[in-house]
Write a structure and sequence with these properties.
- The complex is a heterotrimer of chains A (about 325), B (about 300) and C (about 280).
- Chain A is built from twelve helices and two strands; from the N terminus they run αααββααααααααα.
- In chain A, β1 and β2 form a beta hairpin.
- In chain A, α7 crosses α9 and α11 packs antiparallel against α12.
- Chain A is flat, with a radius of gyration of 28 Å.
- Chain B has about 300 residues and is α/β, with parallel strands linked by helices.
- Chain B contains twelve helices and ten strands.
- In chain B, strands 6-7-8-3-9-10 form a six-stranded mixed β-sheet, with helices on both faces. In chain B, strands 2-1-4-5 form a four-stranded antiparallel β-sheet, with helices on one face.
- Chain C is flat.
- Classes of the chains: A mainly alpha (about 325), B alpha/beta (about 300), C mainly alpha (about 280).
């Protein structure tokens, strides 16, 4: 047969494999080995480049924000309640508070609905409706942030204002509730964030719920449990870690969400007195002020510092979320 | 084709009866191989295949040792079966011959494997060239799902970058060699995964022999097949012996008895006995072999 | 002990019925915003749609005719495609490293972890990063810089989905090819990638759909422009940014354009998602 001579297999055709004429049939020229090595080292280099990129990412953010941190101190920048662009004073507490309040509202509203949706879709939903409903819930994730913002500005804010006023008056005995209602507010921003995190929290919860062994569910049912009791006895305890992880991933999303929040939070760099007051968030301040900040180095540095705080917050939360999800998966591994 | 295969099988029986005296492991296979060679010489075409020697082979998965020092000789142009209970290390041993064990994370091997004296593990030996010379057929038929029947058979040639070969000719040869040509010649463009399980496995055999290896390793090639498809593959193995040195791992003792010239029995990572197949099943030297072949354990 | 009976206590049955009702109600509540958003998009957006809406550029005038969204559509398509061209080879390459070469080494674990970290990074932070490294002092805003910001956003999504799909390629196929004596790169190119192709396409399209809707990474990288351009070296318009800027003007004609642009963007994203789903369906058959 026609083989390239350097493969050295030609003499094999004669029926011997003994080394002769230099190279044995089990060898391959280094030239022929080259593509494999190139591929392996190329891909390894690519993977290493990703690591380097993230390190560089962090270093550059830290470097660019150092001016703000050295002027106001890391603690002062993060926890001072004074964000005044005109005086070039940057204390990010109002932003941090706004980010946290809106995210907590998002979790309180979004997670129970998301988990309930996941339970319904996986355990109760008639088979025929399941595919359609699942797709619809997932479609919530396909709507871009800016479209939710648009919708919030022209639909949610005007329509909900009377409801908010009623809530504010009725529940004024609660802390952080009561008094006049602003149009754009923490509450509206939190509500939109709840809608935006719902699909991902629901999707991960469904994955976690799907890992509950059938035997455990059947064991509960065979004991005479009703469907709900089965969910309570067999599913929820088993899926708790995973659902916690899903909620934390949702929190990470909510904290970093920018455009929709920018459009509906009111962009007031103060700490609102109540849920229905205007506020600001870390991400929104960057989106709004960065255009004008290019001219003032300390302002720009402060905004990049806000970005760094945001980055570190999401890192911590996502790291925690991952730990929970992994724990959930470990449990699946044991089952 | 049927005719020739029955000849083949009867010829094999005669061959395995040649070594008369019970011999210690290691010496009788040679005698059997001589018999096999004598038989195949009467065959139309015989391509001499290399003899495979395994010396002091040990293998581990992580901390766990799977093969504990095995010496085995696989005679040229003969079928050698390796039998033993599951977990005895027979599949691992097979994988160590063409270094496929290296694809399992944490697996490693020590010892020598040679093809007519060429060391498979030598520094200069390239794993890709080793596998090109030592083909393998797997437990589950695994045709490439994205490729047609033709492309599946040609895959080895394309994947190894062989140029200057008449692909059509080689594919037809390989498919004829695997006894599949008549069944698929009119639908070579169809997907390989559309075939029946037995046809898929013969397709995989065709794919393996299309690159013209010198040795074919088979890892329980019939365990996923029905009895009729199994019989067909067994006949095929008998025919392939003319051109290849064949090692087959099987948990099916009857299969070993039907196809193999010599049979090796492994237990807990060690080689217990290797001798002419008939001998091993009728008059084994080792007590444990006897217990196994008579169904007392495993 | 009571006599044998097949009735469950009324209290337990009631709890069961109530909780089933609650779960169903929650599912329906979850869909309310979807229905409302789609209803508003269609009712307000269709009115803005016209031939000239898609064929003219924004005029930039605050008083007269605001113009259409041609430059925004072209800009979004162009920047997202460039981002895809950047993100897909890198993302699939890293996934190939993880599945084909990495094994269980500490290095591959670190890579996987940091890819996960990237997934959680807020999109505006990617915009900041590109601004710091590429925009400031490096010739200002440009379409390609926007594309890189979008590519960073797509990268972890592409990598993770590609890794999942590549892991689904049966090991038997890799072994079969290797046992034929094929070099590793050919196994990857001829067997692994073709087998995983439909799934890879799905993952890429979903990442692409996500990038198309992103505003934040473009805010200070590609910024906005009025004129239609395919010059990646200059500013480029995009649908999300057009919408964002129009909303903030709170002027009827601009807001109407925002709704029209939003409907256009959502239709484009849904079409991409639909194609992605069809591709993945093909892979399961």
């Amino acid at each position: 047969m026609q083989r390239e001579p350097d493969r050295g297999l030609t003499h094999v055709e004669a029926g011997t494999l003994t080394p002769g004429g230099g190279r044995s049939s089990l060898e391959r020229s280094s030239l022929r080995r080259l593509p494999d090595r190139l591929l392996k080292w190329g891909l390894t280099a690519l993977a290493a480049a990703i690591l380097a990129l993230i390190v560089y990412f962090f270093v550059r953010l830290a470097d660019e924000s150092s001016a703000a941190f050295s002027r106001f101190g890391v603690f002062g920048f993060t926890f001072d309640d004074n964000w005044d662009v005109s005086k070039n004073i940057y204390g990010a507490l109002p932003l941090l508070v706004g980010t946290l309040i809106t995210s907590v509202i998002a979790l309180v509203i979004g997670v129970p609905i998301a988990v309930a949706t996941a339970l319904y879709l996986n355990e109760l939903c008639p088979r025929r409706a399941r595919g359609v409903l699942t797709t619809l819930v997932e479609l919530l994730a396909a709507v871009p942030s800016v479209v939710y913002g648009l919708w919030g500005v022209f639909f949610l804010i005007p329509r909900l204002k009377p409801v908010e006023q009623w809530l504010s008056d009725t529940f004024s005995f609660l802390p952080f509730v009561g008094g006049p209602v602003a149009g754009p507010s923490y509450f509206i921003a939190g509500l939109i964030l709840a809608i935006m995190i719902l699909p991902i929290v629901s999707a991960i919860s469904r994955e976690v719920i799907a890992t509950v062994p059938v035997e455990q569910k059947e064991a509960a049912l065979a004991l005479g449990a009703t469907r709900w009791e089965m969910i309570r006895i067999a599913i929820l305890p088993h899926a708790r870690a995973g659902i916690t992880g899903a909620a934390m991933l949702g929190l990470g999303r909510a904290i970093g969400e920018t455009i929709a929040v920018t459009l509906v939070i009111g962009n007031a760099p103060t700490i609102g007195k109540q849920l229905f007051d205007q506020g600001y968030s870390l991400a929104a301040v960057i989106a709004n002020e960065f255009g004008e900040a290019a001219a003032t180095p300390i302002h720009r540095s402060a905004l990049i510092a806000a970005g760094l705080v945001l980055f570190v917050l999401t890192l911590l939360i996502n790291g925690g979320a991952r730990a929970f999800v992994i724990r959930g998966e470990r449990r699946r591994g044991q089952a | 084709m049927d005719l020739s295969s029955t000849e083949d099988r009867s010829g094999k029986r005669a061959a395995t009866q040649i070594p008369a005296a019970p011999a210690a492991a290691g010496s009788s296979p040679l005698a059997a191989a001589a018999g096999a060679a004598a038989r195949t010489s009467s065959h139309e075409v015989t391509t001499p295949a290399p003899q495979v020697n395994v010396e002091g082979l040990r293998s581990w998965y992580g901390e766990q040792q799977a093969v504990r020092g095995v010496d085995l000789r696989f005679a040229a142009n003969a079928v050698t079966a390796i039998i033993g209970p599951s977990g005895c290390g027979k599949s691992t041993l097979l994988r160590c011959i063409n270094r496929m064990h290296e694809e399992i994370p944490g697996a490693r091997a020590e010892g020598r494997v040679t093809l007519d004296g060429l060391d498979v593990y030598a520094k200069e030996s390239d794993v890709v060239a080793v596998r090109r010379a030592i083909g393998m057929v797997f437990q589950k038929p695994n045709p490439f799902p994205t490729m047609s029947i033709f492309d599946n058979v040609a895959a080895g040639l394309k994947l190894t970058g062989t140029r200057g070969v008449d692909l059509r000719d080689r594919v037809e040869q390989a498919l004829r060699g695997a006894g599949l040509w008549e069944e698929v010649k009119d639908r070579l463009g169809r997907q390989g995964i559309g075939l029946s399980g037995g046809q898929q496995q013969r397709l995989c055999i065709a794919r393996a022999i299309a690159v013209e290896p010198r040795v074919v390793l088979m890892d329980e090639p019939c365990s996923a097949l029905d009895p009729i498809a199994t019989l067909r593959i067994e006949e095929l193995i008998g025919e392939l012996r003319a051109n290849y040195t064949i090692v087959i791992v099987t948990h099916n003792m009857q299969q070993a008895a039907r196809v193999a010239d010599t049979t090796a029995f492994m237990l807990a990572g060690e080689l217990i006995e290797h001798t002419a197949t008939e001998q091993l099943f009728t008059n084994p030297a080792d007590e444990r072999t006897e217990q196994y072949v008579t169904g007392k354990f495993g | 002990m009571s006599a044998l009976s097949f009735t469950t206590s009324p209290r337990r049955r009631r709890t069961d019925a109530v909780m089933r009702g609650v779960l169903l109600a929650a599912t329906l509540v979850a869909l309310v915003p979807l229905v409302l958003v789609i209803y508003m998009l269609i009712s307000k957006g269709i009115g803005a749609w016209s031939w000239s809406f898609f064929t003219t550029d924004p005029t930039g005038s605050f008083l007269g005719d605001p113009g259409g969204i041609k430059s925004a559509i072209v800009g979004t398509v162009a920047m997202v495609l460039l981002a895809t061209v950047i993100a897909v080879p890198v993302g699939v390459g890293v996934a190939l490293y993880l599945t084909e070469f990495g094994g269980g080494s500490w290095f591959s674990k670190a890579v996987r972890y940091f890819v996960d970290v990237l997934t959680g990074v807020p999109s505006i932070v990617f915009g900041l990063f590109i601004y710091i490294t590429l925009v400031i002092g490096h010739g200002g805003f440009a379409g390609w810089k926007g594309s890189i910001a979008l590519a960073l956003l797509m990268l972890p999504v592409v990598t993770r989905s590609a890794e999942v799909v590549l892991l689904l390629v049966p090991n038997g196929l890799r072994e079969a090819a290797l046992a034929l004596g094929a070099p590793r790169w050919r196994v990857v190119a001829r067997v692994v990638l073709p087998t995983a192709l439909p799934g890879l396409v799905t993952g890429v399209l979903l990442a692409l759909a996500r990038a198309a809707g992103e505003t934040a990474p473009l805010l200070f990288t590609a910024v906005a422009a009025n004129a239609t351009t395919l010059n990646f070296g200059g500013r480029m318009n995009s649908l999300p940014l057009q919408i964002f800027n129009d909303v903030q003007q709170a002027q009827d004609r601009l807001v109407q354009r925002a709704w029209g642009a939003a409907l256009t963007l959502v239709v484009m994203i849904l079409l991409t998602t639909l194609i992605a789903r069809l591709a993945s369906r093909r892979s399961t058959t």
